[in-house]
Amino acid sequence: xxxxxxxxxxxxxxxxxxxxxxxxxxxxxxxxxxxxxxxxxxxxxxxxxxxxxxxxxxxxxxxxxxxxxxxxxxxxxxxxxxxxxxxxxxxxxxxxxxxxxxxxxxxxxxxxxxxxxxxxxxxxxxxxxxxxxxxxxxxxxxxxxxxxxxxxxxxxxxxxxxxxxxxxxxxxxxxxxxxxxxxxxxxxxxxxxxxxxxxxxxxxxxxxxxxxxxxxxxxxxxxxxxxxxxxxxxxxxxxxxxxxxxxxxxxxxxxxxxxxxxxxxxxxxxxxxxxxxxxxxxxxxxxxxxxxxxxxxxxxxxxxxxxxxxxxxxxxxxxxxxxxxxxxxxxxxxxxxxxxxxxxxxxxxxxxxxxxxxxxxxxxxxxxxxxxxxxxxxxxxxxxxxxxxxxxxxxxxxxxxxxxxxxxxxxxxxxxxxxxxxxx
Length: 424
Prior knowledge:
Elements lengths: L13 E4 L5 H16 L17 H5 L13 H4 L9 E12 L2 E5 L5 E3 L4 E12 L5 E16 L12 E18 L2 E19 L12 E22 L2 E8 L2 E13 L2 E13 L2 E8 L5 E10 L6 E4 L3 E4 L5 E11 L4 E10 L17 E11 L3 E11 L3 E3 L11 E17 L1
Antiparallel strand pairs: 1-12, 2-5, 2-22, 3-4, 3-22, 5-6, 6-7, 7-8, 8-9, 9-10, 9-11, 10-13, 11-12, 13-14, 14-17, 15-16, 17-18, 18-19, 19-20, 20-22, 21-22
């Protein structure tokens, strides 16, 4: 769910390469390609576009962690949680998507599969809690959004999507204040850098769908936002947590490239993607020191992006909607610092059928995970395995919109994550 707004390029920045059969066709190549490109706004579901998995210990619990938040990854999940950490802590880790497997079945029964690849999402956090202050400080570097998909140039819906990737890195300093022993609050700015690279086949008469003819936008830029958190433990067995991440708009600056039998061109232009505000609330119950049960409710406001507008070219409604993820987790602690966890969360689709795109085949997703780890005097480690899967989603688009995407779509993604930390 995002809104990509194409702006008219400045004439002085336009660069054209190659030749075309005629001057008229040569001028028409970028214009027709831009109109084709405008009909496609890369989008993704609540999970497909977002990376909620930021720490192996939390992932093992189904990301039900906002009311626990007891390691440096709290900078992402709930920055108020870093007041629980004494001294200095540093932690590094990574999530690995072991291939995002997409299946497509056409209305005629033909099948097609994407080209999966292993995708890492590394993280790094540092926290310090001075002994003589009720304040804690932290710095996190992580990837809250991102995706990559490759349907190849032979995809039956190539004019709608061939390849797409988005990288989004956040640098997040935070300050947390322990107001009273049972209540902490926190806030910090986010400095976000992102790159996008999207391509689709051209639908351009007299060459309606020629392999190798495609339009591609590649750009990058910075945006800014903030996150806040609250952690309250009124009773030893009960803890409540909440966090909020602001929306932000990334105004990508880059090049729009076209390749077709009529010639090739490259135009400097821009595109905007809105990233949603996110709010999470949770409750943790600890009946004994050996058990921790948590339930979280995670809301992402994808509905803030409701239109695709291109000045003097297109004004298209997008029927995306906000979604809730329901997260459940449990951890069992053992002697000598070891623990095991299990978790589950449900991520409903947030795109409408009428504006579906195979760039990210958004479906209702069920996510299960198991994990474990160790907390020692100085060293910590954790590892988790996760399965992300959804059933078939049937897509039937009105002929006036884009029926080339009609069919059924399914996703399956295994992940592996690890983290290691040191505290002193």
